[in-house]
Amino acid sequence: MRGHLGPACNAVGYVDREVWGINHLYQYPVWSRLKACTLSSPGSGPFREDAPTWCYASFEPEGLLSTISAILSGTIGIHYGHVLVHFKDHSERLKQWVSMGFGLLIIAIILHFTDAIPINKQLYSFSYVCFTAGAAGIVFSGFYILIDVWGLRMPFLFLEWIGMNAMLVYVMAAQGIFEGFINGWYYKSPDNTLVKWIQKHVFFNVWNSQKLGTLLYVIFAQITFWGVVAGILHKLGIYWKL
């Protein structure tokens, strides 16, 4: 019998419920942001009146089966680093990265569009691992050409700074700790915060597009901002590490 990859019932959720028990699973699953669950999709919001029961169900986004896929993703990353260490020629390194990157992308596309294993971030499906790892290989190759082969290091220094303080940027930016702290201070209403004001008046209203405004907000107010912060910390010799 073929397995199911939808939110209502899937192997990831089934294994976690059997092993850990439903009381030990994440109580606010991402399913609640789907169109079937809320009219605010893809954002969060109140549930629809006709929302199916699985919208309310607990689901562990970092469960047992998805952890296996995450380990595979990390192993592919280690291989990219292995190539960097053991191959000294630019062409040999690029040949390894590009060939593997495109190979993984092709596998992901075939699995997804044949409905064999659709790309699904919440389940961390094998096709999702192949797609993200393949895309990472191609992007990494592009940066390698620009910085290491062509010597265009100066425009990308902020990426080096972020890498030097990767743990700080991950915790404060990717996990939303800093933004959450800022949002804790508001005027009259919880929706009237500095972050919301910047998003609305500097990005959304100026460009008259929420999608474009969101993209520019991420580029400038998050990536560029934390690049500058990481650069200042680098100049001060401050690094957050274990």
Automatic annotation (TrEMBL):
Keywords: Membrane, Transmembrane, Transmembrane helix. The keyword 4Fe-4S does not apply. The chain crosses the membrane at residues 64-85, 97-114, 126-146, 158-178, 214-233. Signal peptide: none annotated. Coiled coil: none annotated. It comes from the Eukaryota. PANTHER family: HEPARAN-ALPHA-GLUCOSAMINIDE N-ACETYLTRANSFERASE CATALYTIC DOMAIN-CONTAINING PROTEIN, LD22376P. This is Heparan-alpha-glucosaminide N-acetyltransferase catalytic domain-containing protein. It comes from Manihot esculenta (Cassava). The lineage of its organism: Eukaryota, Viridiplantae, Streptophyta, Embryophyta, Tracheophyta.
